[in-house]
Structures
1.
Amino acid sequence: MDQQGPLSQERVTAIYDRNARFYDTVEAGVERVALARHRHRLFEDVHGRVLELGIGTGKNLMYLVERDDIELIGIDPSTRMLERAAARARDLGREVRLHAASAQRLPFDDASFDAVVASFVFCSVVNPVAGLCEARRVLRRGGTLRLLEHQRPTTPWLAPLFDLANPVAVRITGANVNRRTEENVEAAGFDDVSSMHLDRFGILRLIEGHNA
């Protein structure tokens, strides 16, 4: 189970602020080849008041343009990433309320959301279990947590390589490549936790849990 990472959350946020202007350009290749085709899964059968953690540059907004059954609120600790999300929302004509906040300290009341979603976020939350506990706190009873994440591979020969690469990855990008996010969701107290493998190495996962 993951706890504290090697960098403070302030330092991780500074990395994302620094990288914001070319973040989408750098990720364009992997987004096109591996990630984009799975993003719509975050919002399947989700409706009502929805919180997106780590909304970043707003890559998921395009899947909500015609969804008038979702009231979206997005948070991100990086103000420069939020500026890009706001611009993307304007371009798409999609209303979204944005807040500069950390997943570890959400500025919302208990049980105030029907669903909490995130894509590739808990790799960069310094204390992921604390962030997931916050997600559970703001979810109503019966609410859904849905995460699209990369995590430590299940392939035995590949997992140690990710462990070796992790210190470098964190310092350059702010993201851990060897998180065990499914285990962290369980540790945060979610019920009926399930995980769908989206690649043959067990790296990409669609993880779901519920606040019973």
2.
Amino acid sequence: MADATRAAPTGAAPATDARTVAILADDLIWATRLADAIRAAGASPRIVRRLADLETLLGGASGGVGSPEVIVDLTARAYDGVAAVRFASGTGARVVAVGQHDDKELRQAATEAGASRVFTYRALFEDAPRLLGRWLAG
């Protein structure tokens, strides 16, 4: 795991408050990579693996985190990625997604469902702390 006190990489704007970023990903490797990038950007990741878990997290009642930023992995087996984007954006959360570079239809559907941006896996693999840090800053 990344050290929570590590400085944000060059070009990544550190978060200025105790922000929570929900990460909906059923793939352990991507969930871990995204969580490490969020920590490097100065925020606190909260990984969930099912849409029902995200619904609970965003619920606000009984300890929910309200409307944090949300990252949705679109190519999951345990949930419909576009439906997850639609749900999260409908709660008022800021949402980005990650998906295959060659699946333009899925990326477009996620954008139409409310994702402010859909990153490709390759872009995040190569530069996630900077890209997600900019998203958090903006």
3.
Amino acid sequence: MKKMLGLILFGAMCIPGTPARAQEKSQEKAKSEEKAKQGIPVKVQIVLSEYDGDKKIASMPYSFMTITDERLGSYSTSLRTGVRIPAETESKDQKTTYLDIGSNIDCGVRNEEDGRLTVHLVFERSALYPGTPTGEEKLEVSRPNNLPLIRQFRTSENLIVKDGQTVESILSTDPLNGHVLRIAVTVNVIK
């Protein structure tokens, strides 16, 4: 009798759709979802280009590796590059403070179910204008104590791209000299 009951239970476990088989499928599905949530290495390239009319006058590439993360808005990579310049503050002690000039990039990438990638990017670029007017400026701007002006460019965006795709995501015009700034983002999954 016990032998017969054991054979019946064994046979029930082998039949598709039984609770034992459903549990196996559930465990397999959980393992595949866990693999999908693991980080995937991705190379991100950002190119900031500056144009004077149709003429490209500057191209600044930034390239780094990151890992995909399931949380949109989380940054797995931060890049800071530039210089600190001295600036005098107006006070009786005449102290010097330092300003950061350069590029700041925060980037996070999420792998979507359809194979595309969502890139969350915060890009900030600051640069010095010349200390004396060059005649290129389209707007009259006062320069206190003949100190240089600092140009600021900031963007925060979410891009949806395919592996290997390049997207020109931002185009902005500098109000002082009319130069056009463009950002192109390329994402490649590392296999």
4.
Amino acid sequence: MSKILVSLMTVAVVGALIGGGIYAYFSDAETSTGNTFTAGTLDLNLDGGNTNVVKFNVSDVSPGSNGGGTWTVTNVGTINGYLDLETVGITESAGTTTDPELANEPTGLDTPQLGTYLLAHMFIDTNNNGNWDAGETDILGTNAVPVAINTIAGSYGLDLSLAAGGTNYVTLRWSVPVTADNRIQGDSVILGMTFELQQRAVD
């Protein structure tokens, strides 16, 4: 009787151990902590900074005058982007009125005329030499166009790839043909533009 009781107790203990889930299988555990997500940056610099750049301040413009200037455009961010010329705006003023100017005005009134004669050609200056070369991308026209409100004002989808840390150059050449007459005397033109860097090309 006692042997049977001991045997039953042994079986019960073994069953309890098995039911309790005590095993000797191998195991290992590893961790994955500190997972971090940091947003990249898309940051456009114009001529090395983030402030307004006045590239032209030209006085005493006359028939035969010409010149140019180049913007250094840099993506100082960490994400590749696409460069666009977002807006171009033109403001014209009749400015100072002279007798010879009025004599050449068909209406006898002083109206802004410089924008009709002032020619502009803007392009991606790949080699940064200040001049348009074959194969370079035109922005305003394929040649010099008049800086008239209805001609160049607007938006331009360049979609020029500009990698993180990359630099490109945008040049504007301007001129006033010798055929311009007294009607431009005293007139002025203010040209404004906004460059934009976007993560993706504009549809």
